[in-house]
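Q: What structure does this chain adopt?
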Amino acid sequence: MSTAPARRRVVLTGFGVISSIGTGVEEYTAGLRAGRSGARPITRFDTEGFGQNTACEVPDFEPGRWIRNVPLDDMGRAGQYAVAAARMAVEDAGLTETDLGERPAVVTVGTTDGESHDIALLLEQELAAGDPEAMDPVLSRRVNAGRLSTVIARELRMPNVEATTVTTACAAGNYSIGYGLDAIRTGEVDLALCGGADAVCRKAFALFKRFGALTPDVVRPFDKDRQGILTGEGAGILVLESLESALARGARIHAEVLGYGLSCDAAHPTAPNRDGIARGIRLALDDAGVQREDVDFISAHGTGTKANDKTESAAIVDVYGDSPPRTVAVKSMLGHSMGAASALGAIACGIALEEGFIPPTINHRETDPDCPLDVVPNRAVEADVRIVQNNSSAFAGNNAVLILGTYGE
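A:
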């Protein structure tokens, strides 16, 4: 009787970050420790008539600093974020274009809006001219969301890759990491570049405004006075590698990917579902082989809306009981960066494991009794962090939960 081969261990060897609180791992770490807010006036599009003008845009982004092989006009802002973060991640991992070369790999990027900002510009051109022929062909060529992953392969000169764009909305970053994890575990590849990217756009801003889900000031997850989200943007790309590959080349290992869980509750187009979230958490813990009492903190989806925070809190209590791990919401700092959100959350978790601290939930005044959690209010805390859970949920009932741990023999 044959036995199934042991699944391979997978580690994180590179992080690339574009965010509203810092570009690059060093700046991002400082932002997380300081509890920095990325909220600022919107510059990307005209907000006249909306009654508010705040989002978490990335400041002072210089794409040419990171993008060297693909013309900048070949990608929109989300694509530029994805490529820049990928370049940072492989450099952080100590990999060069020569190292990557013909190496088989997976490149997978999650997104919610793709290049919706460019689509809006094209629509404006058509309406102004009354003629679809007036649309800019350069913009038209780059709006396909699939380009978010293929342009990374082009930039890094990796012809032997499977390039996939995952569109499970605001859970897409964790979905992408799980996809890469499976590909390495099963021996299909030794290397994967995974994460998410999105750019601030009028579509998302208008959608959440219409839902009544935009906060008039700041994001206050789990607070009794929370009023909603701020839209955000950025990219988080992680280098996943088989442990054997990482050890063979003497790579620095940030953390280990222990497991993940996916669930689709299919209960409502937009409202979160308590049972579906709890099921995703249990599946992730089981896949990781982790006991509930071993989780040191949870990076929550934590959007700052009434429904999400109450429902997610209840699901956490359903799994962990009356004394759940400390639970933080980095969206209080980053806003909701859509498809990039859980990838940036995963990198925050990896940094916390490596640096020994728990980032704060900022803007906090008083915890909602319906959210009975220690949210690490306003100030980061030093902690011996060994296992971390990263939650994400999305419209259409998509939930993805990731478990990371410190690397040990």
